[in-house]
Amino acid sequence: MIHKKIALLAFAFTITFNCVAQQTPAAKQQKSILIINSTTHVGDGTILSNCAVGFKNGKIDLVSNATTVNKSNYEIVIDAKGKDLYPGFIAPNSTLGLVEIDAVKSSDDESEIGTYNPHVRSLIAYTADSKVVETVRPNGILMAQITPRGGLISGTSSIVQLDAWHWSDAVVKENDGIHMDFPSSFRRSGSWFEPGTIEANKDYSNQIKDLNSFLANAKVYNATTSKERNIVLEATKGLFTGEQTLFIHANEEKQMIDAIELAKSNGINKIAIVGGYEAYKIGAYLKENKVGVLLRRVHDMPENDDDDIDLPYKLAYLLTEQGVVVGLENSGSHERMATRNLPFLAGTCVAYGLDKEKALQLITSNTAKILGIDSFCGTITVGKDATLFLSEGDALDMRTNKLTEAYIQGRSISLETHQTRLNDRYKAKFNQK
């Protein structure tokens, strides 16, 4: 028995040691930088050829034509001729840094017990030096919304930049929103390999009543002075003041309408849908109510027998055509490791009808708008954070998404990962270039 305990401790130590990333976060920007002669994808649908982009103290202070810029105003000049410059990609509804190894319970902090957990803050569980986090940066993902899971109200998310020592210096917007996993109006039995029947959720009405009761109590609590402090209800205050967004995780047409009406009836006006598989059926309603959609992973199979086989791929196009603000998220199976594929999800949307620059907006400016951070990121614009990267080609295509430089708030970050180190190691062993 003692030997088994020693073996388990040794195994745990090995896992802990291996989970520590080797990257040292970049130091604060000291020298001004000018990138010239690039093809700049602003992130708002605009492309600027032969462009010059300058930044100082972490902020963009110049976007102009490269032929007219005074290069002597900058200490470092990078000639990016033949390269493409992009704003940093943003991964919303992500559990990056909350789970390191799925099979090791002690490394899993994505959910908390209980049904109503608005007071659970995912930020303080975020592991900034996760090995998984460092693997997404080489594909251009430089920011993420760290989001909890579980319960009807899962908790509070925060937005981080992905090159930091600790959660406290990673955060760019703390407690940006509260996440509600709205009940489904029906239930499916079976599994993906052996589908069962679809039945109405008999508890649906009662579940909505319970949610309404919770939100009504929270509204009253936050509008009055109570002698007894209730941290659960207190955590919802931002929903009623407009400081936070209510992110409703829902996919069905009826489910989304019911959820939005429930929120509005309780005085919550900043609302976004996460998932939104059937959102294309209610595009006009979403636009009228100014509800954005963080669309579920588009690399997926259709949900229903009578859906078009390519429906998941063209959902972004269908919603954009109706004037809905759409972003892309990548939750689901292997979601943390698959975060690196976010730009290629946008690329798939191009293949199914969406203009390439509009597809870029799905993971830059549109996502920034939905998350409420578009005042300082999401586009390459004077005054915003210098969170951007250079690619040898089209960053939405896995064949040409090859980053040469990346910056977060003006800091030149490393694109090396444990995977690139292993690649270099074995190339050296076999004398390969």
Automatic annotation (TrEMBL):
Superkingdom, taxonomy of origin: Bacteria
Signal peptide: 1-21
Domain Amidohydrolase-related: 350-393
InterPro entries in the cross-refs: Amidohydro-rel (IPR006680), Metal-dep_hydrolase_composite (IPR011059), Metal_Hydrolase (IPR032466), Metallo-dep_Hydrolase (IPR051781)
Protein name per its UniProtKB record: Amidohydrolase
SUPFAM superfamilies: Composite domain of metallo-dependent hydrolases, Metallo-dependent hydrolases
Keywords of this entry: Signal
KW ATP-binding (keyword) present: no
One Pfam family cited in the UniProt record for this chain: Amidohydro_1
